[in-house]
Design brief:
Length: about 350
């Protein structure tokens, strides 16, 4: 099915003065940013939009807290402030707050935590226990990647690239899904697909990433899926210089560069809204992972803002429904990560 993303600025435009709290004295729902602001037009804003939408509808007080330093202690300091101001439930976006949530859950057992796109753990990862007052939310990156690879090939791209950041689980799942979706479309169309594939080893803006992307474009790659955090900006820079295309991940990157043709995104806004709705309805599922797939409308493509040549809503809805109904289940094991274990039919991988 086609899912529309509501423009974030329309949702929160009147709610961001100062810290965004509807009461100066207290707030029931708190939001701890991952270091950026709630107006970053990226991860924080996507999550915060779901919080604002819910709280405004239900007349619940809320406030955003921005850490002074982006380390565990900085996040914990803001969580303490939120608790002192009366927060009953605290939303924490991204993997950057995983350790902080792990510690905060023990410090404040009567407060509930929603950890978006991350899993709690201690400093050395020796304990990954999910406390009863924590709901970690994860997403099926392999399905998001599958949608992107499928759409790219159906839209006419036969030579693709994948530039991941660190070879960690979510990045690998994105890449594997991308390959499988491209291969699936290649089989349907009866055409050969070529994908240059590598991990850059960084999630930062980096000249080396830009140079690698430029090499991909020089060797006939037409569109690169950028799955490396801030490193995606380096891919965009190369794309602009080489007249190439970029496929974004996690959130809509279309505003960042004219080279972005579409993005495969996590429905962060809906994930936060639903988590808060469950909490206030007495259905908070703490102590276990909530994993969102196409079946829960957890991942999608930016069809409304995408720059597609021929790929249509009809094609998108059809493949989305197949994933949602589990007629298609992309391989998602990340134990190897070199793509060698994928059984492909019409796709050749050039692994760098």
């Amino acid at each position: 099915m086609k899912i529309k993303l509501i423009p974030l600025l329309l949702l929160i435009s009147a709610c961001l003065s100062l810290a965004g709290c509807k009461s100066k004295d207290s707030c029931e729902v708190a939001f701890i940013t991952d270091g950026g602001t709630v107006e970053d037009a990226r991860y924080n804003e996507s999550c915060y939009a779901g919080l604002v939408k819910f709280c405004d509808e239900k007349n619940v007080t809320y406030k955003a807290f921005v850490p002074e330093v982006n380390v565990v202690e900085g996040y914990l300091a803001q969580i303490e402030l939120a608790v002192n101001e009366g927060a009953k439930i605290i939303v924490c976006p991204s993997y950057m707050l995983e350790e902080a949530v792990y510690k905060a859950a023990a410090l404040y057992p009567k407060v509930n935590f929603v950890l978006v796109d991350g899993m709690p753990h201690n400093e050395d990862y020796s304990d990954t226990t999910i406390a009863e007052n924590v709901m970690p939310i994860t997403f099926a990156e392999e399905e998001a990647g599958f949608l992107a690879g499928y759409a790219a090939v159906r839209d006419g791209y036969e030579r693709l690239g994948f530039l991941g950041g660190m070879a960690e689980e979510s990045v690998i799942r994105y890449g594997y899904g991308f390959i499988q979706g491209a291969d699936y479309a290649g089989i349907e169309l009866g055409q050969k697909v070529y994908i240059a594939y590598t991990y850059t080893g960084t999630f930062d803006i980096n000249q080396g990433v830009q140079d690698m992307a430029a090499i991909f474009y020089d060797y006939s790659v037409k569109a690169i899926m950028a799955c490396g955090g801030e490193g995606g900006n380096s891919v965009m820079k190369a794309a602009e210089e080489k007249s190439g295309a970029v496929i974004g991940t996690d959130y809509d990157h279309g505003y960042e560069s004219p080279a972005v043709v579409f993005s495969c995104v996590k429905n962060l806004e809906k994930a936060v809204y639903d988590a808060l709705n469950d909490y206030y309805n007495g259905n908070f599922e703490g102590g276990k992972e909530r994993h969102l797939t196409c079946a829960e409308e957890g991942v999608m493509l930016t069809m409304d803002s995408g720059k597609f040549n021929t790929f249509s809503d009809i094609e998108y809805n059809a493949i989305y429904d197949e994933l949602a109904s589990k007629k298609i289940v992309p391989y998602s094991d990340t134990s190897i990560g070199t793509t060698a274990e994928l059984n492909l039919v019409n796709t050749e991988i050039i692994y760098q």
